[in-house]
Amino acid sequence: MLRFWVSVVLMSIGAFLLAAIVRPMPTDNTPRLPTYPRLIARIGSKDFTLLETRTDEEKRLGLSAVPTLPPRYGMLFHGKGQMTIWMKGMSYPIDILWLDKDNRVIYVVHDAQPSSYPKTIFSNPLFSDARTVIEINAGEAKRLGITNRTTIPLN
User: Fold this and answer.
1) Which domain covers residue 121, as residue numbers?
2) Residues 80-109: what's their mean pLDDT?
3) Predicted local distance difference test score (pLDDT) of residue 26
4) Which of 37, 69, 115, 145 is the most buried (most CB within 10 A)?
5) What domain count does the chain have?
6) DSSP-derived secondary structure for the chain
7) Is residue 101 part of a domain?
8) What are the backbone dihedrals phi and psi of residue 106, each rounded to the nearest 5 degrees, phi first?
9) 95-128, pLDDT tens digit by residue?
10) pLDDT number for residue 7
11) Are 64 and 88 in contact (CB under 8 A)?
12) Cα separations in angstroms, 136 against 16, 70, 112
């Protein structure tokens, strides 16, 4: 009788372990985003979470380090003067916004395509003093009515 109960206990433990091993992993479709600092920006009527680049390497990689950009997310670059953006390593189109020292939009590129690299490097107009660049999903700038002189508060 003891042998019977030991067998039942061992089979129960084995069944539990087997279920734990074979259980399908939950699928998480949330894209993995870099662990850059984040801030909130009000772009048009929507709040966006911006990944803030700090190092030269983060700036060089840009959104190529983000396989897919979730809705209402973007990337923020700080600089001064002529700020250029390329589409190296990108797999989706984006809108690019250049802002001045008062966070007013001074230039917008709509629907910058990954295929533009290496032929095209996007930049703000010569003689405009850009301090910040924001990259967001293509079509968002038009959808939200972003034009030159639009102010984008950064928190």
Assistant:
1) 38-143
2) 94
3) 41
4) 69
5) 1
6) -HHHHHHHHHHHHHHHHHHHHHSPPPP--SPP-----EEEEEETTEEEEEEE--SHHHHHHGGGG-SSPPTTEEEEEEEEES-EE--TT--S-EEEEEE-TTSBEEEEEEEE-GGGTTT--EEPPTT--EEEEEEEETTHHHHTT--TT-B--B-
7) yes
8) -115, -15
9) 999 999 999 999 999 999 999 999 999 999 877 8
10) 57
11) yes
12) 47, 10, 10
Q: What is the CATH number of the domain that holds 54?
A: 2.60.120.1140
In a domain, 136, yes or no: yes
In a domain? residue 4 = no
Q: Is residue 10 part of a domain?
A: no
**Between 6 and 116, residue with greater pLDDT:** 116
Q: What are the distances in angstroms from CA 78 to CA 13, 84, 124?
A: 57, 11, 13
Whether pTM > 0.70 for this model: the answer is: yes
Asked if residues 42 and 34 have their Cβ atoms less than 8 Å apart, the reply is no
